Amino acid sequence: MAVKYNVIEKSLPSLNNQRQVKYYAVANANGRVGLPEMTKYIESISTVSGADIRAMLYAMEDFIITSLADGKIVELGELGNIKIRLNSKGEESSDKVSNKTIKKVRAVFSAGKRLRDSLGNILFQKSK
């Protein structure tokens, strides 16, 4: 199977005030999968029951949320890790930086080596 992609047009600013157009590939998702699909798959390749798998996955979700709220980086083996990233308003001195200057909090996933390596083996197909 191949990952399909669409082509999008983006206008870029140029020095001589002329519109410069470039075209880029953007991945076209082929649906979604979630915990029910993951549970069924794991159940089909193991001796663990669906109920036990769901319990573990929901416990893992709670563990990740709690750990991130405690300021920890959550390592998920060769899959990668999840950490918190902040966006804040810039201030003129460090004394002025406070909780109120934080604008956004994001959970950021960084792929591990095995996942990064596997991405190099993906086949692509242009959508029609």
Short description:
The protein is an alpha+beta fold and 128 residues long. The chain has helices at residues 35-44, 50-69, 113-119; strands spanning 3-12, 20-27, 74-75, 80-88, 102-111, 124-126.
Please, could you describe this protein's structure?
29% of the residues lie in helices and 33% in strands. It is α+β, with helices and mostly antiparallel strands. The chain is flat. A hairpin with a 4-residue loop joins strand 3 and strand 4 (80-88). The protein is built from three helices and six strands, in the order E-E-H-H-E-E-E-H-E. Among the domains are: 32-71; 73-89 and 96-121, no CATH class. The protein has helices spanning 35-44, 50-69, 113-119; strands spanning 3-12, 20-27, 74-75, 80-88, 102-111, 124-126. The strands form two sheets. It has a three-stranded mixed beta sheet with strand order 2-1-6, with no helix packed on it. The protein starts with a strand and ends with a strand.
- Mean pLDDT over all positions: 93
Give the number of DSSP strands: 6
Biggest sheet features? 3 strands, mixed
Widest sheet: strand ordering: 2-1-6
Distance between the termini: 16 Å
